[in-house]
Design a protein that fits this description.
Organism: candidate division KSB3 bacterium
Strand order of the largest sheet: 1-2-3-4-5-8
Distance between the termini: 76 Å
Number of strands: 8
Radius of gyration: 20 Å
Protein name: TPM domain-containing protein
Structural class: alpha+beta
Number of helices: 3
Keywords: Signal
Strand content: 25-35%
Amino acid sequence: MQIKKIPVIMMIIALLCTTALAESPRSGSIDKHLGVQSIDFGSKKQAQTLLDFIESEPSKSEYRLIYVTEIDLVIFGCDFNKGVLFRVHQRKGNHGTQEGWQGYILERLESAAEGGSLNDTPSGKIPGIYETF
């Protein structure tokens, strides 16, 4: 019985194809409706819930947690394609606040879930943008 040797280039191509499939880009968006939450559902709980959501549906590019409190509608999420983490508080009368953090999505979420801040990144504190509308 003769064993055929596979050319090195064929092994490299197979490895690259396998790696490309394993690291395929994220696509699509997904929402998770959390119903009514108390107003103390703050950054720590939001971050941990969003991390769990990302882990449960890892192929998506955009994730949104949506819930209501006694004073507003909250949308907290991220978009991996744009590299942004965002939170919107919509109050009655079409006014509220919106916040956005650029870059380090998972690192910011992990920090907040551990009791830190969404401003915490491997490069130090990088605050987000806060606007009212």
